[in-house]
Write a structure and sequence with these properties.
Bound molecules: glyceraldehyde-3-phosphate
EC number: 4.1.2.4
Number of strands: 8
Oligomer: single chain
CATH class: Alpha Beta
GO cellular component, one term: cytoplasm
CATH topology: TIM Barrel
Organism: Natronococcus jeotgali DSM 18795
Structural class: alpha/beta
Function: Catalyzes a reversible aldol reaction between acetaldehyde and D-glyceraldehyde 3-phosphate to generate 2-deoxy-D-ribose 5-phosphate.
GO molecular function, one term: deoxyribose-phosphate aldolase activity
Length: 211
Amino acid sequence: MDRDELAPLIDHTVLGPETTIDDVEAVLDDAADYGMNACIPPYAVGHAADYAPEVTLATVIGFPHGQNDPDVKRREGVLAWKAGADELDVVINVGRLEAGQLEAVADELAELVAAVPIPVKVIVETALLTDEQKRSACEAAREADAAMVKTSTGFADGGATVADVELMSESLPVKASGGVGSYEEAMAMLEAGAERIGASSGVEILEGAPE
Ligand SMILES: O=C[C@H](O)COP(=O)(O)O
């Protein structure tokens, strides 16, 4: 896959706790130059939509731990959409998932999906889950009519793996994120079935791609 084919599959990402507006603008500049999407913190969405209207903008909801009250997550999603977000990446409530409260997990996601007219991706944070829990998380996301499932926040101890992309692809399209740092790693995720890559290394990935 060459650089131009790969670029639109990448959500070039900046989500760290110290992310400034300058950091967001730098990611948007790179996203615009290369033809990538961008994934940025919620507080920066309004500015980003004005600064780089040509870039498809994702933001994160309930980030990074996913344990906000469901009403807060829904409201956060609506505010982000109204501010200009094109897609939402919401962190699942891992505590509820691990406690087996799958109906509550799915209901919360369904409320968010129903509240916004844009695609919702569900971050399941695979590093914290058993394979059975990963399957349950993906099933809850599918029941909630989410558009995709996403492996990781990038802030847990592990990120995307080929095995997890294969497992998750059985339920919904997958965004592989967390630790994807090179063209070869991105291609391994796509070959495993991923349809999107989330990475703070979007430029490095594309610089390794054939032109
Ligand atoms: O949502 C995507 C992740 O935050 C990116 O993680 P990364 O910095 O390991 O590429």
